[in-house]
Amino acid sequence: MYLWVSFLIKSEQYTAMNQFLFTERGELFNHLRNMEAEIARNVEEIDETTIEEKSIEECASLVRQRSILDCPILREDQMYQLEPKESKILMETWINDVQQSVPSTDITVVLPYFGDGSLLTMRPSSHQLSFPRGFLHSQEIHIPYRVHNGDSESLRDNIQQNLETIRKYLEWVKIDVDAYNQRAEKKIVQLITLRKDKLNQGRQLSASLGIPLKIRSDAPKTYPIPLKRKELTIHSAQPGPKGGQLDPALDQRVYEEILGIIQNISLYMEKSPKSFTKLDEPEIRDFLLLTLNSQYVLDATAETFSAAGKTDIYVLWQNHHCFIAECKIWKGEKQMKEAIDQLLSYVTWRDTKTSLIVFSNNKGFSEILNKIQKAAETHECFVRKTAPQSSHLKNTTTFSYDFHHPSDKSKELKLTVMVFNVPSSR
Questions:
Q1: Does 300 lie in the same domain as 184?
Q2: pLDDT at residue 14 above 80?
Q3: Please, are residues 111 and 82 in contact by the beta-carbon 8 Å criterion?
Q4: What ranges make up the beta strands (E) of 299-397?
Q5: How many folded domains does the chain comprise?
Q6: Which of 77, 90, 233, 353 has the fewest CB atoms found within 10 Å of its own CB?
Q7: Rounded to whole angstroms, what are the CA distances from 399 to 384, 388, 402, 418?
Q8: Over the stretch 269-298, which tens digit does the pLDDT of each residue have?
Q9: How confident is the model at residue 224, as a pLDDT?
């Protein structure tokens, strides 16, 4: 059998399509160089409030969306072909070089992929003199053939040779892209860290002048710290186990107000890691205690917020805990579940309010957030995920839950987990 195969540049279904991959947009090297130069501008475009309030990891994720490339991966297991179509091809005869139109068949092989398709249009640093045939259509590579009197085995060989060339070029593209992504990742973190440090230096310089700042209308109500401490009141809550007797409870509004103060203090620590990165859990606890006791008073004879053990903060009412917080430096899911168990062991009343304040100095902050949620929501005493009433607690690093006591499901506690990223070095 005689095989005649041509690659279509144009057909009725597709017009003005490039016949060759990895050629349309020039050198990949130039594209990567331009993208690397854009990283600084992408970092500068993040608004100042986000830079100040979000962690380095959260800010970096915003820049990665624009600066990190996703190398295409072929989905050869999903390769298919379009419906064959009749066509004609012009062939020259050996006699007088006369052209004549002869019947042929158009066959288009379609190869899906995922990733950044633009990388299939640029020439990698390593390449051959020849390039694979095909053009892009959505998230697919279309490889059209026009066949006259051909056998299927020869056509399959032709298709496989072209696929092998595409694979080889993608390997070269991946080498260039992986090297760029590594440089870009390092540069993103460095530039965000530098910008955070500059903002912090500016704040410190401003504070050193001794001239008061104009207070923003949207500034948190907990700052500046009031000279007159607020009275912390305990209210009757759900009926207790003895008939109509009521168990005391910390009001939800006050609970979230306390959490807001802890959040503001911890965000300050997050923004000024050089001042706090060497503190251990008890020292962090003591720093929080100092500020909380400057804000609230329960009675005239003792501090409202007290310490227990190495890391606990609690409010005691009638010899029972109505608020408990635990400071932890992230060491893994096992420690997280143990901290929840410890909080549960304190519960003696319904509606006890609790909090876990977790500080991480590890890389991969987003992954840590996922692990913390998993540890909480797979705990045997987990009841439900809840939503805080206060807007300042509605963010990506604060999680609110209801848990029940291990031996009494009628006793539930409120648990709010607040996570902060304080890198060990900058």
A1: no
A2: no
A3: no
A4: 306-308, 312-317, 320-329, 352-360, 382-386
A5: 2
A6: 77
A7: 11, 9, 11, 7
A8: 777 666 666 677 777 777 777 777 766 655
A9: 36
Alpha-carbon separation of residue 423 from 104, 265, 317, 333, 362 (angstroms): 66, 16, 37, 19, 7
Lookup: tokens for 222: 């907990």
pTM here?
0.47
Which residue would you say has higher pLDDT here, 315 or 73?
73
Distance CA 165, CA 172 (A): 11
Does 316 map to a domain? yes
Q: What is the pLDDT of residues 58-107, one digit of tens each?
A: 888 889 888 999 899 998 988 999 999 888 777 665 556 667 778 888 88
**Is 326 among the domain residues?**
yes
Q: Is residue 212 part of a domain?
A: no
Cα–Cα distance between 189 and 271 in angstroms, integer?
A: 15
Locus of tokens 């059209």: 144
Domain C-terminal end among 198, 218, 243: 198
Nearest 5°: phi and psi at 342? -65, -40
- Give just the sign of the alpha carbon dihedral 113, 117, 121, 124: negative
* pLDDT band, very low/low/confident/very high, at 265 (cuts 50, 70, 90): confident
Residues 268 and 385 in one domain: yes
Position of tokens 């279904």?
A: 13
136 beta partners: 141
Which structural domain range is residue 393 located in?
230-421
Cα–Cα distance between 185 and 183 in angstroms, integer? Answer: 6
Are the CB atoms for 56 and 43 separated by under 8 Å? no
HEC per residue, 127-179: CCCCCCECEEECCEEEEEEEEECCCHHHHHHHHHHHHHHHHHHHHHHHHHHHH
Q: Please identify, among 153, 177, 198, the residue that sits at the C-terminal boundary of a domain.
A: 198
Looking at the fold, whether 157 and 277 belong to one and the same domain comes out as no
State the pLDDT at residue 299: 45
